[in-house]
Structures are given as C-alpha cells and as structure tokens.
Amino acid sequence: MEHAYPDWLNLLAWAALGLGVACALWIVVDEFRHKQMMRVMYLVWPITALYMGPFAVVAYRRSLARMKSAMSVGGMKMAPAGERRATFWQVAESVFHCGAGCTVGDVIGEVVVPLAGIAVLSGFWAKTAVDFALAYAFGIAFQYFTIVPMRHLSFTQGIAAAVRADTISIGLFEAGMVAWMGFLHFGLGMHMSAGEPVFWFMMQIAMVAGSAASYPANAWLIRKGWKESMM
User: For 169, which of 6, 98, 163, 227 could close a Cys bridge (C-beta 3.0–4.6 Å)?
Assistant: First the structure.
C-alpha cells in the first residue's frame, strides 16, 4: 500500500538508496582487483555499503591497507585472548560481519512475508519475529565462514564457535533496528510497506542504529577472544 510522504522525504530516500547501491557496486568492481583474506568478505563489504554508503567504502579501503601492511611483515597473526585491543576500524569490521548476515535475513523477511500473504505474519511484532529468526540464521552463517577458515574448525565446532561469537552481537543489532522501526511505527504512526523507497531508507537508518548498538559488544567479544580480529 502506497502512502503519501513529503516530496523532500521521497527525494532523500531515493538519494540515500542510490548512494548505497553506487557504493556497493564500486566495492564489487574493486574486489576484482584486491583479494580478500576471507571469502565471506566479498559479500560483507558490498552488503554493508548498501546501508553505510561512503563510510563502508572508507572502512573497506582501510581494511585493504591494513591487510597489505600485515602481509608485508609476515602475514595476519592473532593476539592471545585478553591481549586483543582492536582499533575502532577493526571492531567496525567485526560489526560488519554480523550486520551483513542480519541485513540479508531482514531483507528476505521484509520481502517474503508480504509476498507470502500470510495474514498472521502481517503485524509489526510477527514480522519482527520472522526477521529476527532469519537474521540470526544468516548472521551465524556469516560468522561461521569467518571463524572456520581462521581456526580450522570442524563443522560442529564451527557452528558452536559462531553461535558463541555472534549471538549477543546479533541480538543487539536487531534490538537497535527494532527500536528505530518501532519508534517510526508506534511513535510516529508510519505504517510503511516494503514497496516504498521511504521504507528502505528507514531500514538503512535502522541498520546503522543496529551497528551502533552492537559495537560495544563486538569490542568486548574480541577482547574475550570469542570473535576474531586481524591483529
């Protein structure tokens, strides 16, 4: 169902979405020229750019510079747990791992639920529950493909490590998103649909809010040694 929004909001939504797509495409093209240490990052960076825009491009470029620097002095090495003091950008990259999986799950949930036409899932909280379930599944999958290649774990060990590493992070990421979307829905009465550009613009903001909410937890998880950070 289409809603009437101010012209400036529609224009801002289209501009923000266009910028996100442009940044994502730029990263995709650039990834053909620069090898990533972990294959999952080929997906993480462009997905992150869809809602972080130029900030994701800056983080991506800094990550490449950090990898080149590390490789020039003998490769990526892990600091012992308890001695890991990741930089702002390294923690941000950890947030992006989590956020990319959550984003995929949330987008699928927001598109599939309306298309399925299941009335019981049309309410705000019902869709939120579906989004969370999908976000959790994809978030754990993305973390699995980050941890396993670095620690050389078996499938079972990898799943257990991914669950331990990202459950808190995913929960806080989704909490930040729900807080923003709930404010719009209940506080401002914006009952948006997935067919509107304003909805996806607000989802971009929600994902940024989720990233901010999960950042402290990611810093703590890295220090504890439950999540990996290139050091």
Answer: 98
Residue-range definition of the domain harbouring residue 150: 7-224
| SS3 (DSSP) at 93 | helix
**Contact call for residues 218 and 94 (beta carbons, < 8 A):** yes
- How far apart, in whole angstroms, are the C-alpha atoms of residue 140 and residue 135? 8
Q: Is 231 within a domain?
A: no
| Contact partners, residue 152, CB within 8 Å, separation at least 6 | none
pLDDT digits over 5-39, tens only? 899 999 999 999 999 999 999 999 999 998 888 88
Can you state the angle between helices 88-116 and 54-72, rounded to 10 degrees? 130
**Comparing 21 with 67, which gets the higher pLDDT?**
21
Q: Is 55 exposed, middle or buried (0-12, 13-18, 19+ CB in 10 A)?
A: middle
Q: What is the Cα–Cα distance from 175 to 56, expressed in whole angstroms? A: 21
DSSP annotation of 191: -
For 74, the token pair is 């003998």
Dist. CA 230–CA 91, nearest whole Å: 10
| Confidence check: pLDDT of 56 > 60 | yes
Asked if residue 1 belongs to a domain, the reply is no
Q: Is residue 11 part of a domain?
A: yes
Q: Please state, in angstroms and rounded to a whole number, the distance separating the CA atoms of residues 13 and 7.
A: 10
Percent of the chain with pLDDT over 90: 55
Dist. CA 136–CA 102, nearest whole Å = 6
Cβ-contact 201, 13 below 8 angstroms: yes
How many structural domains does the chain have? 1
